[in-house]
Design brief:
Elements: H1 2-34, H2 43-48, H3 56-62, H4 65-94, H5 102-124, H6 130-155, H7 161-165
Helix pairs in contact: 1-4, 4-5, 5-6
Length: about 170
């Protein structure tokens, strides 16, 4: 009975993950097809980019910040949705709880999405490197571990004063 419930629980998680990824993908399609990410006065950079005459910092400086942030948010949504079933499975496999909390799974998959968006942003700046990506991943993992330790510490109930004396 429990195995059947455990298997069926992945279906809503996978469905929600696909829905989040689909919404992020539709936002990404909207951004790429209908929005112009550069200032019109800086069209010379568009021509200089394929010729190798434009620096990445100049291109990002000419970009519209709101569109770039929306692009990174849609990347975060896509990766979060795709990571949701995988994070759920990893929590079932390696976690102590039989049914992990949904907000915990969502938070962990959002860490994955934020990490990938950060790596995309580094690549847009042409500063992406494996060492930087691994360092940021380690920081995010340590931060998640600290959040889980804090959650476990809050759930521990201390004995009352009368119970300590007697």
């Amino acid at each position: 009975m429990w195995h059947t419930l455990k298997r069926l629980r992945i279906i809503p998680i996978a469905g929600l993950g696909l829905l989040i990824a689909l919404l992020g993908f539709l936002a990404l399609v909207q951004i790429v097809n209908n929005w112009w990410p550069f200032d019109v006065a800086r069209l010379d950079l568009v021509r200089a980019t394929p010729q190798g005459q434009a620096d990445a910092a100049l291109i990002l400086e000419a970009g519209n910040v709101e569109i770039l942030l929306t692009f990174l948010a849609s990347i975060t949504a896509i990766v979060t949705g795709l990571a949701l079933p995988l994070v759920y499975y990893l929590n079932i496999r390696f976690g102590k709880a039989r049914f992990p909390r949904f907000l915990l799974i969502l938070r962990q998959s959002m860490w994955v999405g934020a990490w990938v968006a950060f790596c995309v942003w580094l690549q847009m700046n042409r500063t992406f490197g494996i060492a930087i990506a691994l360092l940021v991943a380690a920081v995010l993992i340590i931060f998640e571990i600290l959040l889980q330790v804090r959650t476990r510490a809050v759930t521990i109930q201390l004995p009352d004063a009368g119970e300590r004396d007697g």
